[in-house]
Amino acid sequence: MKPDLDVENLKIEAKRFSEMESEHDEPSLFGVTDGKAVGTYLEHKFQSGLLSKYNVEIGSSAKGIDFPDLGIDIKVTSIKQPQSSCPYKSAKQKICGLGYSLLIFVYTKANDIENKTSNLNIIHTIFVDADHTADFQTTTGIIKILENNGNSDDLMAFFEERMLPVDEIQARKLAEEIFRNAPKIGYLTISNALQRRLQYSRVIEKAGCVEGVYRLT
């Protein structure tokens, strides 16, 4: 009987996978420059290894994230431009987080012309708790307003300055919710576009130094 996969074992397996993959030379990736193709290769290889050892549900595009039972999504990105896309759900995600945790693999890619292989050196493997997946500037700005005895009008003015995609009614409800439950600091940079862009430079910088952002490798 295979054991059920839990978050701690996922972190252990991610560390092991990163170390092994960094030593692997892969012919199918030789000359490949499409970051999406590299990401798909890494995600599927990691998931296949987990399926061989654990009982785990792998998510589909309909379910939105890679490990729906654990509330975790995989992101793969090059160190050259550490970012990825994320489907838009609501402006609230910039303040309260994405609603799930992130397992991020950051790689450098090198081609071996003589052997026609490619090596993915996974230089950062980082786990970000769901509570800390909001936008850094937005959450720190809100916390500063709250600490300075700000009111709903101050928060709504801040939303407008940050060009948060909400109307006045939504902004008022969001402000009231923030007063009931202040957000935690997020460490992502999240665009306002409908196909949101998540940027990870700060996550890489802060991993292992702040609450909720763990460096696995």
Task: Report on the architecture of this protein.
It comes from Candidatus Methanogaster sp. The protein is of the alpha+beta class and 217 residues long. The protein has two domains: 7-90 and 98-133 and 194-215; 136-180, no CATH class. Helices cover 36% and strands 22% of the residues. It has seven helices and eight strands; from the N terminus they run H-E-H-E-E-H-E-E-H-H-H-E-E-H-E. The chain has helices spanning 7-21, 35-53, 93-96, 136-147, 152-161, 168-180, 201-206; strands at residues 25-26, 72-78, 83-87, 101-112, 117-128, 189-190, 195-199, 213-215. Strands 1, 2, 4, 5 and 8 form a five-stranded mixed β-sheet that branches. The model has no long low-confidence stretch (mean pLDDT 95).
In short:
The chain is 36% helix and 22% strand.
Q: In whole angstroms, how far apart are the ends?
A: 30 Å
Which structural category do the helix and sheet elements fall into? Answer: alpha+beta
- In terms of DSSP E residues, the strand content is 15-25%
Q: What is the H-and-E element order?
A: HEHEEHEEHHHEEHE
Summed over residues and divided by their number, the pLDDT gives a mean of 95
User: What is the helical fraction, as a range of percent?
Assistant: 25-40%
Number of separate domains: 2
- Number of helical regions: 7
Question: How many runs of DSSP E, i.e. beta strands?
Answer: 8
Shape verdict: elongated
Largest beta-sheet details: 5 strands, mixed
| Uncertain ranges | none
Indicate the radius of gyration in whole angstroms: 19 Å
Protein name: Restriction endonuclease
Keywords: Endonuclease, Hydrolase, Nuclease
Organism: Candidatus Methanogaster sp
